[in-house]
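agent> fetching stored inputs for the KYN docking request
agent> found them:
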Amino acid sequence: MVSSSHPRVGVLEWGVKGVAGFRTDVNGKDWQALRERALTLDASDPLRSMRDRFYLPQGIYLDGNSLGLLSVDAEQAVLGVLETWKHSGIDGWSSEPDPWFSMAESCAKGVATLIGAKPSEVAVTGSTTSNLHHLLATLHKPRAGKRRVLIDALNFPTDVYAIKAHVANQGGDPERDLVWVDSRDGHLSIDDLLTQMRDDVGLAFFSSVLYQSGQRLPIAPIAARARSQGILLGVDLSHSIGAMPHALHDDQVDFAVWCHYKYLSAGPGAVAGLFIHERHHAVPPAFPGWWGSDKTRQFDMAPSFARAKGAGAFQQGTPHMLSLAGLAGVLPLFLDIGIDRIREKSLALTDLLMEGLEQLGALYPELQIGTPRAAEARGGHVALLHPHADRIAKALKEHGVTPDFRPPNIVRLAPVALYTQFADLVTTLEVLDRILRERLYEAHDAGRNVIA
Ligand SMILES: Cc1ncc(COP(=O)(O)O)c(C=O)c1O
Ligand SMILES: Nc1ccccc1C(=O)C[C@H](N)C(=O)O
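agent> prediction call returned; pasting tokens
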């Protein structure tokens, strides 16, 4: 455990006004009842000691769905790699107890538990984007009568770029071959989506949780429909891994990709992950590299590729150890707590937040909630919609709350079960109340910052 003298605050000094010095009681709504409930929830929160393991920047951090915070555990693991490098040089690859040579495999085993996969179905490697390119090139060969690719209009841009490029690389025409599940209101209709999984579709690719609205898609029925229609199904788990359980193996998803730097807090640009269902393990990777070798054969340096069994074969070059160590360090926290308890707290956090936002919506009609209310239809963050979302995000940050902004009108608020307190959310609501009441956002320019 972290000692009480551990530096909890001030790791990053943002120079914000700070929530503590911010008066919220001027002609405002009375948040006392909600605050009392939040304090009771905090007092009985079984995960509350986890917060002590994280470096918490000044103010309230609600951007863990973009970059999760640093834990002492991840820090120690990264420092451990540096120490080993310092003292052992090349022997770091083999020195016990954590040889670098097998660190990706040990991480894959832990990650598999979080997503309902067999260890042999997961590899920790590459980036979300590079893994998607790799799996598409390996598994999807368009054929006559099944050339169409189904994606949704709300998917994260990198996925769309990769899929368009893949279609073009396979001799197709993205304009003609892509079928879009459209959205009128920022959400996807599951009925629409299932209906569009028609006979002429060969590949479908969705996110488990949509990055803007936080809508969660039901993977089991989508995968069942994909199976019955002979469609290859891929899923991007970037916004759900570490926040909720998955059942990729049992649901029979064909493949999946994700990053580890959001809810999992493995560090900026941490090594990413991929899943390939075991029924596809006979297919060789499209872009092999020596790090995908059977580990007992890798240093034979043979000209023919003796690949690892399963997803490990999709590794390519030497793992980026400094970017892998953070994951190795933080994973045991998730495994010890168990992903079901994490989801339980995450839902309780977003419940409280949405309840408060509904109360604010009654006071400020321009404010709307862009996230589905039903627990099974939402992920770990809440999207707030407002015509001045860009300026509101800046005003929140100025007053000590870190959200992010996604164009055109979304402020995302992501409480993370391991380090967000219920009371933080009530403070956020109070700050937001005053920003809206006094139109404090007008002090900020419209438009996003380079990184929003
Ligand atoms: C759904 C989704 N996919 C992919 C990415 C990013 O891909 P990469 O990790 O390759 O930068 C993000 C966020 O950056 C994301 O939200
Ligand atoms: N990788 C990043 C690097 C810098 C800033 C943000 C990101 C994000 O991950 C954004 C996130 N995927 C999103 O849902 O918008």
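agent> quick read of the result: Residues 66, 211, 451 surround KYN (ligand 2) (CB under 6 Å).
agent> awaiting further instructions
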